[in-house]
Amino acid sequence: MLWHYWEEEETCLIKQIDLRKIQNVDIQQLKPSRVGRISDPYIIKHMIVKTLKTTATLLSFLIMTSCGESAGDFTSKELSLIHSTDSIMRVLTIDNPADSFVLRDVSTNLSAEALLSEDFAKLSDLMTATVTHPSQDGVGIAGPQVGLNRRVVAVQRFDKEGEPFEVYPNISIVWTSDSLAYGPEGCLSVPGRRGEVLRSQEIVIEYDKISESVETVRDTISGFTAVIFQHEIDHLDGVLYIDRL
Ligand SMILES: [Zn+2]
After folding, report:
1. pLDDT in tens, 51-63
2. How many Cβ atoms sit within 10 Å of the Cβ of residue 45?
3. Cys-Cys link to 202, which of 2, 189, 206, 222 (CB 3.0-4.6 A)?
4. pLDDT one-digit tens code per residue, 89-123
5. Could you read off the pLDDT of 116-157 as tens digits, one per residue?
6. Contact by Cβ (8 Å): 165, 155
7. Active site residues
8. Which class for 233: exposed (0-12), middle (13-18), buried (19 or more C-beta within 10 A)?
9. Long-range CB contacts (< 8 A, 24+ apart) of 6-14?
10. Can you give the pTM of this predicted structure?
């Protein structure tokens, strides 16, 4: 048995040739290139070169595809995370080195297109379900805490009737009062600890409000709810409340 090897339109072709069927044929006349055993260094060398070329082409394609994504769109990794569950998300903690890397990173905004997607709607539901779950029982949660370095937080509005949880994407603080006060804080990502943190009594937040379109709006928040917003927005800059103790 021999291996028939040749190149054709950038493709490496190898097939077995049954010598019993070609006994009366000059095998060298059968192919455009050459015939050899699979251990032939020439064949092995070309198989390696072709494999490397194919790999390089694939990598180039992946890099171009990656670069083609808008920075504000969900990455495939983020989409996988969002659609990996229908219940709650795992909360990252600083005692896990890999989690800590995400918690300490700076988060980025999402595009209007991403905010209007079902993916974001699901992320909002998951974040709310996670922070309100009996296993967490928190009053706020930020994107990095569920593994996404995106500027989105879910906060319980103690200053509103019914104290609902609301989700705020692309959020930042644009003004803080000079009036400060210490208050006790804990964090779902820092298990087993609490501390007194100095925070502004009143703040103005800016975020993207989602209806049929996306509109950037501002809101003035005061009291304990303002403290929650400051704590959660800190997360988006990789800051934890323990940094302020
Ligand atoms: Zn926290």
Report:
1. 555 555 455 445 4
2. 10
3. 222
4. 999 999 999 999 999 999 999 999 999 999 999 99
5. 999 999 999 999 999 999 999 999 999 999 999 999 999 999
6. yes
7. 232
8. buried
9. 6/31, 6/32, 6/33, 6/34, 7/33, 7/46, 7/50, 8/32, 10/53, 11/50, 12/46, 12/47, 12/50, 14/38, 14/43, 14/47
10. 0.73
What are the boundaries of each domain within the chain?
Answer: 1-68, 86-244
CA 36 distance to own-chain centroid: 49
Q: Residue 134 corresponds to which tokens in the numbers above?
A: 């009996």
Is there a contact between 62 and 75 (Cβ–Cβ < 8 Å)?
no
Query: For residue 5, how far is its CA from the centre of ligand 1 (angstroms)?
Result: 62
CB 203 within 8 A of CB 224: no
User: Could you give the residue ranges of the DSSP H alpha helices within the chain?
Assistant: 41-68, 76-82, 97-103, 112-115, 118-132, 224-236
CA 89 to ligand 1 centroid distance, Å: 15
Residue closest to 99 by CA, chosen among 45, 145, 32, 155: 145
For the domain bounded by 86-244, which CATH number is listed?
3.90.45.10
